[in-house]
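hey team, just a heads up i'm posting the complex here instead of the shared drive bc the drive is being weird again. everything in one block, sequence lines first with there labels, then the predicted structure for the whole assembly after. its two chains so it's a bit long, scroll down
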Amino acid sequence: MKRETRIALLGLLVPLAIVVLWQIAALMQKTPLFPGPGKVVLAIWANYPVILRELGITLLRAAMGFAIAAITMIPLGIFLGRIRLIGRVLEPLMDMLATLPPPAIIPLVMLFAGTGDWAKIVIIAYAAAVPLLMNTYEASHTIHPMLSKVARSLHLSRLETMRLIDWPSSLPMIATGARLAIASSLLVSVTSEMLLSTNGIGTYLQRSQENFRIDAGLAGIAFISLAGVLINAGVFRLEKRWLFWHYRDQRQSE
Amino acid sequence: MTIARYAEKLRVPICIVLVMGSWQLIYVLGMVPAKYFPSIFAIAVAFWQMLTDGAVISAWATTFLRALIGLVGAALLGIALAIISDLSPVMARGIRYVSDVLQPIPPAAFVPMAVFMLGLGPKLYAFVIILVTVWPPYLNGVSGLASVGAVQLNTGRMFGLTNWGLLWRVKLPAAMPEVFAGIRYAATISLIAVIVSEMLAGRDGIGFMIFKKAFALRTAEVFGLMFLVGFNGVLLNGLVNLLRRGVTGWHIRMMERHE
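-- predicted structure starts here --
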């Protein structure tokens, strides 16, 4: 066997050991409020259609919030990064926003927008906006000075420079911001559903707790984790495909 | 040009004036009902009343202490896991599996289930916070330990260090700057996790207080508490930076010299 595969297989023992310990702990507790992995698997089998439907609602909301944030914040970030004076002056404002955790604005949004779909989408958009704005801004104001000179010698207008030079050269860092933003919009979508309950996987978790179905709740968590892993892997793939030139250049310069 | 330079020097006051000004403008123009959007003065008065009342101070202390204890635990555990991963590639792979699975789960999702398993006490907060904040210090620790240069390692060997000595005196100090970047990120997450857990567990702390006030439509007080949450972030960040200067001062001085 190759060394790589042997490590990968032996590594599986670690999560396996955790599962076994968990099962032993659950058997010792002997209460339905502390279900073991066996019970959770049964709960997954019993509940997966409901969980998948609720998860779909959640993911749709997360995607909408993220899309709104991306459409508004990436252009704003480039704008603030290029118009240096405005960007530098407004920097503390961005820092202030970054210190305010998204869940803290949930009660506030609730006052304005109630507990409907839009309230949750606004919260998700806010959560995704901060990393997107910060990274886009950071990327476009630390652009290599040579690129600006190229733009000037080609007589590009300001708008053309933003579109043809700033946007592609900030893409790698924007992609990092997007990855953070996707993660945080997933996290916040579940959180906001738990607090502003109507539907979605967060509400499903909350309801499982109210019915003392801890095993069903853990089954829901397992699906959230699975969705997260799949989305992360997908984003990573897309990044590799769209930004192949960046990774290629990086390898060459090493 | 001089105007630009002044504007840059005064950017913090400019930003504060900008926020407060547009806030007051929305209030004066009545774009949003005053019930939902109180004036700055109303917020300041409500905040002051809460401060003198004393309830907010104890809630603040509870929340901040929880975040701090969780962060310290997560940082220590993260470093320990990183060291284990550095020693054994099998363990590294195994811990990576676990972190891949656990990382996408929001702290909020753990709370309702953990309430039954662990109760509403400090165990609940320690569990939830550590479970979600341990990953940035761990991941940064792994990559920091892995990227120690061959020259440094060989120098250490030349001084006759054993493998343990090499880890303790060469690799760990060299990885610390990266670990601290992870801890800084973890600080933000731990504050979020505390607030969310308090909102859901519903017993005490700033998170619970915000929710209670929001349901009672005490908007001015909600804004005041949100300000306090932001302040918590600044404070925790300051503490982490202080510690970073102490532990990795050599690195910061080196970077400054290079500039």
